[in-house]
Amino acid sequence: MPRLLPLLALLFSLRLEVCAQTVTYHADVAPIIHNHCTGCHRPGEIAPMPFTSFSEVQAYGEFIAYVTSIGYMPPWSPDADYRHFVGENVLTPEQKATLQAWVDAGKPEGDPADNPGLPDFPDGSLLGAPDAVLAMPEPYTHEGDMTDQYQVFVMPSGFGEDVAIRALEVEPGNGNVAHHAILGLDVSGTAAQLDAAEPGPGYESFGGFGFDAESSFFGAWVPGALSVSYPPGIGRTLPAGSDLLMQMHYGPTPVAETDLTEVNVFLSDVPIEREVITAIMGPQHLDAPFILPPGQVSHFHGTLPVTADVSLISIAPHCHLIGSSWLVYATSPDNQDTIPLISIPAWDFNWQGFFTFTHLTKVPEGYTLHGEATYDNTASNPFNPNDPPQWVTFGEGTEDEMFFVFLDLVPYQEGDENTALGPVATGCPGDISGDGIIGVSDVLMLLADFGCLQNCDVDVDGDGAITVSDVLTLLGNFGDSC
Ligand code: HEC
Hints:
Elements (H helix, E strand, L loop, with lengths): L3 H19 L2 H12 L17 H6 L1 H9 L23 H12 L27 E4 L4 E3 L6 E8 L6 E9 L6 E9 L3 H8 L5 E2 L11 E6 L12 E5 L4 E8 L6 E3 L2 E6 L6 E2 L1 E5 L9 E2 L3 E10 L4 E9 L4 E9 L6 E7 L10 E9 L4 E10 L14 E2 L10 E8 L28 H9 L19 H9 L6
Parallel strand pairs: 8-12
Antiparallel strand pairs: 1-11, 2-10, 3-6, 3-9, 4-8, 4-11, 5-7, 5-9, 13-22, 14-21, 15-20, 16-19, 16-22, 17-18, 17-20
Helix pairs in contact: 2-5, 4-5, 7-8
The structure holds heme C (HEC).
């Protein structure tokens, strides 16, 4: 036995060495980068540097290992251990370790034959041919002065009658500057007046659409996000004569960039049986007056009773720059059951969005919705717009704050829990069946999709196609639970 130990140690170190040596760009790093980064990090998209080739990625290797290790990239603010959403983009600990191991090994290139190739990044709509396209009335030029710009554009819906829509999809005109967009609806004509009162295309507004009245948030878009397409029978009415509002956030740029963003409108093929309702938790639901003293971290807790069985579609917490975290959940009347809805441990104003649940998510009648938000109004909050910190209250401006949770929902119907709202990401590659263990059923499901080249549901290694490498990855994890 004692003689075995050195042998084991030797074998172990050999194994480690083999592992370290086998991490190469083409075989191990490219699949991660292509699938999780290149969507934004390619020419014409929002990220400042492209990651499409070995030399481009190699040049940033250390930085990539760093920003991924701290969770700064890819940008995904909800805690994936609390709740999964459609379009979730997070790296597993193994993927982060692979990036680090590659840097530690001196960023070897490996054999180009191992490279899975760039995924097919489709141009245009991801949802098919739209029934109508609403566009910004005229192009907008964002000056090259390295500042952010928040500009609202008013797009008359143009329909002479109420129409039922199943999806709205934002197609940015200029990916270099289009950082994110928020959609709203105005039936009052207020936005059109605000637009007319300001010279040039659209009008400036930081927090929302610059007025609350009857405008409601309708959706949001960030690069790489999928638009929600409501399941059959669920939809939203665009009232005749209404205006669709789009608040564009243009990111800083050293050169002037011109944008003309469009919104693809998809009408519902079948009549809407369940109209999407936006429930709003706001400052009136808070346990204390919404006042943020300077130099303090304040915590607010809002509650909203659930008065009927509902199915949640998406959730969007909303605050400005002093806000630092969010936690939203629902509790049963006896407090024995908690439904986790969203946790955003480090709120980032620039990556806010409507997060779509993977399935319609039931919250029963009698439950209470809770929204907890923390605001760091100290000088150590790097995003604090006031230097030194000031008294802050509710308002639309950059230096004001907000407290809102928008919840898109429909009345509950039997079986809603099984209605998927988008491709399901399990957060556990290989667990295709979603049962928490990588087993025979996963192998069978993978083989059934073998050879798929695009938009494959069961892709294990994340390269976009279902090939031998997926089978090997899955077999390598066989028996694991997650
Ligand atoms: C949703 C779009 C998006 C995705 C996906 C994305 N990035 Fe980024 N990345 C950006 C943007 C935009 C910036 C510019 C800084 C900012 O706005 O946060 C950036 C900046 C960076 C930077 C420079 C950081 C700095 O402070 O200058 C690195 C390095 C980086 N990304 C690496 C990655 C890696 C690695 C991945 C994948 C694991 C990734 N990014 C995925 C959009 C994205």
